[in-house]
Amino acid sequence: MTDGDVLTVERNRRWLLLLTVAAVTLILGAVSATGVMYFSGWRHMPEREFTVAVYMVPDASAEQRAAVREALGGLPAVDGVRLEAYESLHLTTVGRDFDCAPIPAIRESAGVDRVRVTMRPRGRRVGAVLGC
C-alpha cells in the first residue's frame, strides 16, 4: 500500500465518521423534540361527538319552536336538527371541541325550558355533560 492509498483510506474514514455523527445527531434531535412536545402537553386531539338537546316548555308556540330550530341550524350539525319528542329538538355535531358561544342565546329564547350539551363517550374516553 502506498502513502496515497493510506491517505485516501483515512479521508474516507473521516467522511464516514462525519456522516455517522451527523445522522446520530439528527435522530437524537428529532427524538428529543418529540419527547419535549409530548411531555409538555401537546397531544393529537381526536374528534368527539357532541349532542345538543333543547327541551321546550309544553305550551311553546309553533313560532317559538321554529325560532329555536333556526338558531340550532346555525350550529354545524352532522344530520340536521331532529325533533325527537314533541318537546325536544336535538342535533349532533363532531369536532375536537364544542363552541358554547351560541348556547346562551338559545337557552334564553322564548319557549325553551332547558338546554343540555353532551359529549358522547368514545372508546375508553368517558362522556360528559358540558356546562355551556
Describe the structure.
This protein is α+β, with helices and mostly antiparallel strands. Helices cover 41% and strands 24% of the residues. It is built from three helices and five strands, in the order αβαββαββ. It has a five-stranded antiparallel β-sheet with strand order 2-3-1-4-5. β4 and β5 form a beta hairpin. The radius of gyration is 30 Å and the shape is rod-shaped. The protein starts with a helix and ends with a strand.
* Main pleated sheet: 5 strands, antiparallel
Number of helices: 3
Radius of gyration: 30 Å
Q: Going across the major beta sheet, what is the strand order?
A: 2-3-1-4-5
What's the shape?
rod-shaped
Note the gap between the termini. 82 Å
Structural class: alpha+beta
> Unreliable stretches, pLDDT < 50, 5 or more residues?
none
Residue fraction in strands = 15-25%
What do the pLDDT scores average to? 87
Q: Note the run of SSEs as H and E.
A: HEHEEHEE
